[in-house]
């Protein structure tokens, strides 16, 4: 009998707490409601992205499709890529009068075809000049980290494409030494 009274007292306390929480204006979400309001939208988004990826609406689709629906792979032709080694460069960096720092740079450029080399070779002095002028203004801090290397690569590519009438696809570093 005492056990029944304790159960009734506990039930009464629980109902009082429920009424207090409702009166206070703060309601707690039950586990079912939480899953419904949070889990369901996340599930819908994940399924939608998966379907978009599967049907090729997002990246990851390789090749192209013709109008008749035939899937065609894009052919990679390594013989179409042409690399040309620029002369090695050694420049002193801007240290603000605090000693001397040197940069040794070996660069390879990527061109569209073999004929582009015939156009680039006579323009090497112009390319070296553009590089030297830019590199001499750099500080050691400008070349630190991957962000510094990325910025240097983009700036050299921009200067190359401005200096010569052939499009340079990429600038590749063979060697970078700061001493």
Compute the separation of the termini in Å.
91 Å
Overall strand count: 6
CATH class placement of the largest domain: Alpha Beta
Q: Which runs of at least 5 residues are low in confidence (pLDDT < 50)?
A: 16-23
The major sheet is characterized as: 4 strands, antiparallel
Describe the SSE topology.
Layout: H1 2-23, H2 31-54, E1 64-65, E2 71-72, E3 82-85, E4 89-92, E5 102-111, H3 114-120, H4 124-136, H5 145-163, E6 168-178
Notes on the protein architecture:
By secondary structure, this protein is of the alpha+beta class. It has two domains: about 1-70; about 80-179, Band 7 domain (Tetrahydropterin Synthase, Chain A, 2-Layer Sandwich), CATH 3.30.479.30. Helix content is about 45%, strand content about 20%. The protein has helices at about 1-25, 30-55, 115-120, 125-135, 145-165; strands at about 65, 70, 80-85, 90, 100-110, 170-179. Helix 4 (about 125-135) runs antiparallel to helix 5 (about 145-165). It is elongated and about 75 Å long. The protein starts with a helix and ends with a strand. The relative contact order is 0.11.
